[in-house]
Amino acid sequence: MAFEGLADRLQNTIQKIKGKGKVTEQDVKEMTREVRLALLEADVNFKVVKDFIKNIKERAVGQEVMESLTPGQQVIKIVKEELTALMGGEESRIAAADRPPTVIMMVGLQGAGKTTTTGKLANLLRKKYNRKPLLVAADVYRPAAIDQLETLGKQLDMPVYSAGTDANPVDIANEALEKAKEEHLDYVLIDTAGRLHIDGDLMDELIQIKNNVSPDEIFLVVDAMTGQDAVNVAESFNEQLDVSGVVLTKLDGDTRGGAALSIKAVTDKPIKFAGMGEKLDQLEVFHPERMASRILG
Ligand code: GDP
User: Fold this and answer.
1) What value of ipTM does the predicted structure carry?
2) What predicted TM-score, i.e. pTM, was given to this entire model?
3) Distance 119 CA to ligand 1 centre (A)
4) Assuming Cys at both sites, which of 28, 186, 199, 235 could form a disulfide with 60, CB separation 3.0 to 4.6 Å?
5) CA 86 – CA 294 distance, rounded (Å)
6) Could you tell me whether strands 217-223 and 187-191 are parallel, antiparallel, or unpaired per DSSP bridges?
7) Which of 114, 116, 149 has most ligand 1 atoms within 8 Å of its beta carbon, as the pocket-test mutant?
């Protein structure tokens, strides 16, 4: 399960402070030292850990704890609030254009789960919001990627726009938009090309598509299992494309937590969805508070 090590350690740590009728500075010092080590071990970004600990320390030796009738529990509440804030605070909504279709560009490195997530998102939009999506195969470099999206379209019984491997991705995106308008479809999900590594050509192409279709959302799909690499990828994509949100995939695996806890703080972009498995219904809206509760027990 995800975050298992982190959850165990944090729960152990807060257990010690929980029942305390008085919380001394020494108690806070010991607790934050353990929390710091647990976060670093979970592969959370170093600077993120530093700021997080500073916030907790300031609040835990402050008035809200001193004046509380149950100081131990008050400290735990502070840790939970800060952990929630670290993951973005509120859960975020998905855009809906004033004049449909709403255009969503899916971007990310190959293997992160971009195509699968495109299918999952389409499924969610239909199921939860009663929307009609069009899937767009704009990864013209890999015939397998086009096939994969077409297969997903069949499984979901949803339209897919593709134009083979000779077409230009910008044209494909424009044509797909026209088709969606004609057929009164309300979401256009563009599955863009991924590469094994970030490169200039990939970014240029994504920027061109962005400039042409003015997407309402750009979702960056990253693999939670890759820890700080996922955070670095998010930073680069965000610098170039100003993404609107992140989808963290493979949270069903035994990821340590580094990506989930660092991405918002490093990129200032929220994690909007979490991939919880390979199946098409295994995409969840990311709830920072619920995630914090899961970690802290
Ligand atoms: P792309 O190259 O980024 O389009 O990646 P794919 O969509 O082809 O996914 C790569 C692999 O990751 C596939 O085997 C997917 O089934 C798998 N995958 C995607 N999302 C998840 C997830 O949330 N959990 C798990 N366990 N596997 C996932």
Assistant:
1) 0.99
2) 0.95
3) 11
4) 28
5) 14
6) unpaired
7) 116
